[in-house]
Amino acid sequence: MELSRIIGIKCVVLAFLWTLTNGDTEVSCVFQESCILPCSFLGSTDAVISWSLLKARHVSILSYNSKQDQLTQQDEHFRGRASLFKDQISNGNASLQLTSVEFQDEGRYKCATGGNNDSFISLKVDAPVREVNIEKAENRITCSSEGIYPEPLLTWSTSRQTVFRSTTIVQQSGPNRELYNIKSSVIFPDTKHDFTDMTYSCTVSTRSNNKTAILSNRNLKEGIAKAMVAGVIMIAVILGLIPICCNKFNSKMHQSCSVPMSVLPTVETGSMELQSHQAQQVPDAAEISSQLDLVLTEKTSEELKTLIAPGHDHEGDDLLPKAAAEPTEM
């Protein structure tokens, strides 16, 4: 009795594996992207199509009948994310398109088109390895990659045999902690280890893809060369800016300290008045002397004309010596 029960269980398992291997179409979708689950039939203008996810409970995804979608039984998880190619249904295309694929979408799907022509699709969701970073600091080389699903594997390799130990840390991230971040470090006990004579490779792999990052002698030399070039350019820029800044500073100091003066004659008093002109040039000595001679000459001429003018009331005539009185006859 016990033997027959065991044989029965084995037959069920084998039947399931046969269906999965020979009857299911495996589809791999990328997390947060669109994906198509294929399904085809003979084609009809009156086609009846239904899609469902076979889990612990029957999850209705989408139904199509009478040339329109029937969404009354649609599960909320697929609302707004599932659709058919309606313009191709008459040609026998009953494929389902899912948008913004999530990890909860993984599972076994059933496409029913009437009769015994049901199709089964096994869907897997992956977040592939997109980038692998490798860097060196002192006697440590670190390799890392982020946002991967399912849990990745990280391996090291070198161009020639060497002894080293590595430490790998795997952490989960994302809103539901579904994505994996992986980081591994190789530490060399000898701090004087020559990193430039070898090539180091770090490979991060999952079931869907793998990527490799390489740290080689060329990478290190290029990094050193780039750092040296950047340093030389910075020094050249600084040296070029110093004279310009000094010239501008000296020019501002000269303008603020020098106050040009011009000498203008004052006709009313015959004296000279100094006036400040910020934007004028100082006249030379010959020009000043010429202006003074002209002013003094004009002043003297005006005074003489005033003194000898007819009808002038000579104030101060009493200051002139009077003429001697004529002698009277005795």
UniProtKB/TrEMBL annotation:
Cellular compartment(s): Cell membrane
Pfam families found in the cross-reference section: C2-set_3 (PF22705), V-set (PF07686)
Matching Gene3D superfamilies: Immunoglobulins
TM segment ranges: 227-246
Residue ranges, compositional bias (Basic and acidic residues): 310-320
Membrane topology, record value: Single-pass type I membrane protein
Region forming the signal peptide: 1-23
Gene Ontology CC annotations of this record: external side of plasma membrane
Domain Ig-like, residue spans: 37-122, 141-216
Sorted UniProt keywords: Cell membrane, Disulfide bond, Glycoprotein, Immunoglobulin domain, Membrane, Receptor, Signal, Transmembrane, Transmembrane helix
GO biological process, one term: T cell costimulation
Region (Disordered): 310-330
Protein name per the record: V-set domain-containing T-cell activation inhibitor 1-like
Protein's organism: Haplochromis burtoni (Burton's mouthbrooder)
Lineage, broadest ranks: Eukaryota, Metazoa, Chordata, Craniata, Vertebrata
